[in-house]
Amino acid sequence: MGLELRTVYFPDSNNGWTAGAFGAILRTSDGGKTWKEQNSGVNQCLYGLFFINSKVGWAVGNRNTILKTTDGGNNWKLQNVPTGEGNYFAVTFVDEKIGWAVGSYGLMFKTSDGGKTWLKQNCGIEKHLYKIRFINPKIGWAVGKWGKMIKTVDGGNVWASMESGVENHLIDFCFVDENVGYVVGDAGVILKTKDGGDKWERLPFNHAVELHAVKFFNKNVGVIVGSGLIMKTIDGGASWQFMSATLPQHIAPLNYYCLSMINEKQGWIAGQDDTSDGLILRLEDSGNNWVLAR
After folding, report:
1. Which domains does the chain have, with CATH numbers?
2. Which of 24, 117, 195, 229 would you label with 248, given CA atoms 20 to 30 Å apart?
3. Contact by Cβ (8 Å): 99, 91
């Protein structure tokens, strides 16, 4: 087995990072054509990345790990987080000061000073939270195990449990605006809301695989990745088509774990195959074909 890359993030079309097992972090400054390893200073698996710009970013992972860089990843420093809390699976910020990290058994921490201090929040959930994102500084969502999802409308001060209608593990989500959003998870579950999450509809999908990431560019066009598949919709999730991926014959993808896309024509996927030390794909040919980037 090669190295698992579990998260990828591009704040712009040139600068990006991917991270994963054993504290691995790689960085590109040419749109994913070349990648260089960075020293995270930890050996824990890293599950989440978020960058405000090409200099300032955070990485989170197992065993209470929250890292911050202010120089594009040349130096990563552990943040001051209370010990013994658990594993972090995702991190997000609304600006350079205010951000959240979520993880195992409903773990949620908030910082208001760029990560100098982190305060524990009670989000009302005791199951793993796998992803957190904010649509704007006030409205945010988090999703996780057994169909759990929570929403805030006051900038993260109060979180309310929302009814997903499923018991699948929910792994990632994307909102086009305050009303239209999509969630993906295990067993091929894809959910869609048109009313800000009050009601969720399960979309038909014929592949009972774990879906790890989703990105929509508008109400109709979106991309999902998962266990061995990359698919695209142009009709709001009513139907999905496989996207072309040109890989060497010796490369057999096991899992596409994460996705970062600037627009319909610029995107990156990271994961794991059965031969290499971490799989990275880059979108080329005007958004029509994924090619091996590392």
Report:
1. 5-292 (2.130.10.10)
2. 24
3. yes
